[in-house]
Every structure is written in structure tokens, then in C-alpha cells.
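Practice problem 4.
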């Protein structure tokens, strides 16, 4: 007889892990299946090791101001040693993940899962053994895999996807061609450069084209990268690749040839559904391969949910974790919550941190709002000045009629931490009031959220709404 569970989760990345642990904490009998490394892409080849490297890169930048502080030293970095450091971090986190799941009595299965029926999964392990389990509800959290555009093809040691970069030590050689204009490439352009590589960054599109950061935010990023001699060669195409011999030669659409020691592809990801046998049970995918789901995150079979990269074009760990929280809540409470991807924070860790959530002005106007903007720069922040890191700003958008919060972005150090202050109020109608009435540590970067709120209220005549005057 097949083992029966309340919930089976396929995939142990940030979404799958969150779904399994949250469901177990709420009393469900849970099974989770992982065919590769526990923790998925984010832990093993994505956000966790990248953030480790980014911290190292930032230390290199900070060291350049040491002399003015009376510290007589300047740091340099070795990418291969940094690679081993992130491996230790990953191993530590992975061990804690597995231990926590076991303490929650989550059944863990290592192997490849496929659908046998709407409620039944077959798990094929590395020893060739098959077993079947049944579950009342199922969450698909199989993530994505690196996209390899033509004319590239992965070649170990020469042409690496972002996944391959974390499988083995980086190849020898300082000259690296970095391909792509999205988040991964924008982060790696800075990280590689600070870790001692000579980076040629090439892409067809402008950096972060698909993310609605303001023009001011993207200009700030451009300027921060330029200070480190990092420039995107935009609009470039590739007509051929010669990887014979000790180097890699890229034939560019401009007619020039670029010779490098190795290539890293930061060209995005595609949803991973291979081998799940979705067709066998009638789970639909769209023309880009994403699993089709509704606002409750249900697939075409109502008891099966899809979360994270396999279903969300945003393809971030933040979205996967948010999806997991909503999916588990809906399984337990009967589909009472809906997902709106725009209200999940997006954070970029490059030469400057960039974070945003909600609507930009164009999207706000499209939805019938009249946007008002509040702004505060870190250039006058005592905390930022004391850190020799006063670049960036806070930018908040509200509706001019009623002061409802519509969206915001934070550019500068610790943006990825500060962005949470824009998502924790009970509702968006009262968020700015919470910020205005908040009590802040001084000096702190967070104070600039209060300052931006006050500027917005004063400039656009929203004091009564935001400060509650006369109430």
C-alpha cells in the first residue's frame, strides 16, 4: 500500500522547503522529494552563494576608503578561494535545512518524481528503485534551469552557465566574457570585477530592462558600475564561437573578435518540468513552459499547486517563498488568498543594492491612480556618511487622492533589508501612516523612509491623511 500524506512537495528550493516546513508546522503530514541537492538552485547555485560573494566584493570596495580612516591597508580578492568560502556556507545551511525537516518529521525522499495519477507520485531513486506515495494535495516547486541562447553551448572550463559556475572552482584565467543583461549578469559584472577578473560584459538589451526601476535608479546603478570601470556593451550580438585551444574567441555582430579565457552565461532561466509527466494528469503549461495557474496558485487540477520559478516569470527566491506561504495557506484554509507578484520585493546586489516592490508611476496611472512621489537621499544621512557610503535614495509612491501606498524603491546599501519596511503594515492604505508615526533609531538608514514619507505628505498636501491630523 502506498504511503499517504496530506501534502507532497516536489522540489526543495526556497519555495519547496518553505512550503514543506510551514505545512508541517501547521499540522500537516508532509513529504518532500528532491532529485538533486537539497536546497535547490538558490542554496547551491544561486542567491546564497552569490550573496556570499557579494559581501566579499563589498569588502574590497570598502577597503578603498581605509586610508582616510587611518587604516593602512587595501584588500584584494582571489575568486577561487572565495569559491571555497561559499561552499562552506552552503554546506552549513544545507545541513541545517535537512536537520530542521527531520525534526519536523517531514518525510524526505531523494529521487525523481513523476505523476502517475492526480494524487499519486512515483519516485525513482539513484539506485534504480521505485516507490509510490499518495497525497491529498501536491505542490510543484521544481524551479528552473539555466537558459543557453544560440550560438552558445556549455563547455566545462570554457563556457559556463551560472549553474556550472558553482559546481567546480572557476576556470583559470582573468579574462571573462559575461553575457546577459538581467539580474544575474548585473550582479556578476560587479562581483567578478571585485574578485579580480577582467570582465567584458556584453548583451543585446540594457541592464535590468524587464524590472521597472526608475530612470534615476538605473542611472545610479550605471554610475556606480562606471566608477569600477564596469560598462555594459549593449546591443551586441554573437555570430560564432571558437572554443578550440586555450582561449575562447567570440565573433561579435559588429565584426570584431573578442578573445577571453572563459565565458559565463547570465542569460536567464527557463522553467523545469522535464520528466514530471504533467500531460498524463492534464496539468497545462504555457508557450514558454511555465505551469499555468490561477491567482490562488492552483494548476488546472485544483488540489495541485505550482510555486516559484516553474510557474512565476519573475523567477526569484522571494517569489517562490511568497508563493509557498500563500499555497499552504490556501490548502489549509480553502483558497482564501491570492498572489500579486508585484508586491513581492525584487532586490539586485550589484555595485549598489537596489530594491523595489509595488507599482511604478506608469503602472499606477494605468490602474487609474494619480501618483505622488516622496523622496529622500542618503547623501545627507549621518549613518550613510559615517559609512563612506552615501549613494542612493528612498523613493515612495502614493495615490494623490487618499495617500494609499502604491509602490517604492530603495537604492543604496542595505536596500535589501530596508525594503521589508514597505511590506509589513496591515494594509497599503495605512502603510505611510505607519512610517510617519514610527519611532526610529538614530542615526539609521531607515530614518530616510520616514523622511521620504514626510516629504510626500508636505509636497502633495497629504498631511491630514498620512499624519491623521485632526483625528
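Answer key:
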Amino acid at each position: 500500500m502506498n504511503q499517504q500524506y496530506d501534502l507532497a512537495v516536489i522540489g526543495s528550493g526556497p519555495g519547496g522547503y518553505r512550503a514543506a516546513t510551514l505545512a508541517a508546522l501547521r499540522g500537516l503530514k508532509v513529504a518532500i522529494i528532491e532529485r538533486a541537492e537539497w536546497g535547490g538552485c538558490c542554496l547551491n547555485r544561486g542567491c546564497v552563494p552569490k550573496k556570499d560573494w557579494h559581501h566579499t566584493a563589498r569588502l574590497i570596495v570598502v577597503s578603498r576608503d581605509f586610508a582616510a580612516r587611518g587604516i593602512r591597508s587595501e584588500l584584494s580578492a582571489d575568486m577561487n578561494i572565495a569559491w571555497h568560502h561559499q561552499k562552506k556556507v552552503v554546506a552549513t545551511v544545507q545541513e541545517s535545512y535537512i536537520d530542521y525537516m527531520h525534526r519536523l518529521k517531514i518525510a524526505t525522499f531523494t529521487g525523481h518524481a513523476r505523476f502517475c495519477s492526480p494524487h499519486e507520485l512515483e519516485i525513482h531513486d539513484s539506485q534504480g528503485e521505485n516507490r509510490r506515495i499518495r497525497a491529498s494535495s501536491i505542490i510543484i516547486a521544481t524551479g528552473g534551469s539555466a537558459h543557453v541562447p544560440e550560438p552558445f553551448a556549455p563547455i566545462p572550463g570554457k563556457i559556463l552557465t551560472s549553474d556550472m559556475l558553482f559546481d567546480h572552482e572557476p576556470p583559470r584565467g582573468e579574462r571573462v566574457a559575461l553575457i546577459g543583461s538581467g539580474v544575474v549578469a548585473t550582479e556578476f559584472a560587479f562581483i567578478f570585477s571585485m574578485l579580480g577578473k577582467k570582465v567584458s560584459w556584453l548583451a543585446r538589451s540594457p541592464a535590468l530592462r524587464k524590472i521597472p526601476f526608475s530612470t534615476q535608479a538605473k542611472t545610479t546603478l550605471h554610475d556606480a558600475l562606471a566608477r569600477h570601470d564596469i560598462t555594459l556593451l549593449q546591443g551586441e550580438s554573437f555570430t560564432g564561437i571558437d572554443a578550440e585551444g586555450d582561449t575562447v574567441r567570440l565573433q561579435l555582430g559588429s565584426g570584431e573578435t573578442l578573445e577571453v579565457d572563459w565565458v559565463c552565461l547570465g542569460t536567464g532561466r527557463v522553467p523545469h518540468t522535464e520528466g514530471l509527466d504533467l500531460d498524463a494528469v492534464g496539468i497545462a503549461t504555457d508557450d514558454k513552459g511555465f505551469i499555468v495557474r490561477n491567482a490562488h496558485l492552483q494548476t488546472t487540477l485544483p488540489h495541485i499547486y505550482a510555486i516559484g520559478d516553474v510557474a512565476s516569470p519573475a523567477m526569484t527566491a522571494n517569489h517562490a517563498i511568497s508563493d509557498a506561504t500563500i499555497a499552504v495557506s490556501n490548502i489549509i484554509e480553502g483558497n482564501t488568498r491570492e498572489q500579486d507578484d508585484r508586491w513581492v520585493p525584487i532586490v539586485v546586489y550589484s555595485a549598489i543594492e537596489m530594491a523595489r516592490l509595488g507599482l511604478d508611476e506608469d503602472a499606477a496611472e494605468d490602474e487609474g491612480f494619480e501618483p505622488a512621489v516622496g523622496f529622500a537621499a542618503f547623501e545627507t544621512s549621518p549613518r550613510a556618511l559615517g559609512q563612506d557610503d552615501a549613494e542612493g535614495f528612498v523613493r515612495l509612491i502614493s495615490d494623490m487622492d487618499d495617500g494609499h501606498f502604491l509602490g517604492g524603491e530603495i537604492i543604496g546599501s542595505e536596500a535589501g533589508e530596508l525594503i521589508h519596511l514597505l511590506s509589513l503594515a496591515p494594509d497599503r492604505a495605512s502603510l505611510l501612516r505607519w512610517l510617519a508615526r514610527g519611532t526610529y533609531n538614530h542615526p539609521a538608514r531607515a530614518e530616510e523612509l520616514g523622511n521620504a514619507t514626510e516629504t510626500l505628505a508636505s509636497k502633495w498636501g497629504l498631511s491630514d491623511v498620512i499624519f491623521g491630523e485632526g483625528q
